[in-house]
Amino acid sequence: DQQVKQNSPSLSVQEGRISILNCDYTNSMFDYFLWYKKYPAEGPTFLISISSIKDKNEDGRFTVFLNKSAKHLSLHIVPSQPGDSAVYFCAANMGNFNKFYFGSGTKLNVKP
Amino acid sequence: NAGVTQTPKFQVLKTGQSMTLQCAQDMNHNSMYWYRQDPGMGLRLIYYSASEGTTDKGEVPNGYNVSRLNKREFSLRLESAAPSQTSVYFCASSEVASYDYTFGSGTRLTVV
């Protein structure tokens, strides 16, 4: 059974608006969380991370929120741009940087 | 360009055939990984090598073997391919204790 779940396979957003991608996890031992972005025919690339001791981390247009009690992670992209159209994976681990558990991905389409 | 190179990019195998997927990185990273990506399942770790000379099982190691040939190269071998091993395979590398993985562009393998 998957320990990291992304229940929305796809999301469509208008350019300039906010994109919110969600991720849920089941293992309360997870203590580090990541988001990766993947374009077609390319490997995933690291986007942003958050430690379990924080509830928010920002990097430019990207903000990750962590709600430990709900075991929920979200990525906000503001404002969304057409170049953000990609598949976004969330991932989590528990103290071992060699073993990340990935969600199934959400395909974001930002319409011009 | 510096990065992770995977060969081949595409491969079709018959059930029972064997093959080796090659991966090489030129960033002097210590850790290397093999993931598979399946629809609706996200990325799942097959094997990893935390450092030269060591290899460990990930989530889905059955049916695979790996070799960390040297610091640069990490190969994945399918001894007797099965249709269930049809997938996109990604190799990645990272510094020790880093969550910033550099992924290759993937190998699309079909087993018929």
Describe the structure.
- The complex is a heterodimer of chains A (112) and B (112).
- By secondary structure, chain A is mostly beta strands.
- Chain A has strands at 4-5, 10-14, 19-25, 32-38, 45-51, 56-59, 62-67, 72-77, 86-93, 101-102, 106-111.
- In chain A, the strands form two sheets. In chain A, strands 2, 4, 5, 9, 10 and 11 form a six-stranded mixed β-sheet that branches.
- In chain A, strand 7 (62-67) and strand 8 form a beta hairpin.
- Chain B has 112 residues and is an all-beta fold.
- Chain B contains no helices and eleven strands.
- Chain B has strands at residues 4-7, 10-13, 19-25, 31-38, 42-49, 56-57, 65-68, 74-78, 87-94, 102-103, 107-111.
- In chain B, the strands form two sheets. In chain B, strands 2, 4, 5, 6, 9, 10 and 11 form a seven-stranded mixed β-sheet that branches. In chain B, strands 1-3-8-7 form a four-stranded antiparallel β-sheet, with no helix packed on it.
- In chain B, a hairpin with a 6-residue loop joins strand 5 (42-49) and strand 6 (56-57).
- In chain B, 36% of the residues are buried.
- The A-B interface holds A 2, 4, 6, 9, 32, 34, 36, 41-46, 49, 89, 91, 93, 97-105 and B 4, 31, 33, 35, 40-45, 48, 50, 56, 58-59, 90, 92, 94, 96-106.
Distinctive features:
heterodimer, A: about 110 residues, mainly beta, six-stranded mixed sheet, five-stranded antiparallel sheet, about 0% helix, B: about 110 residues, seven-stranded mixed sheet, four-stranded antiparallel sheet, 11 strands, globular
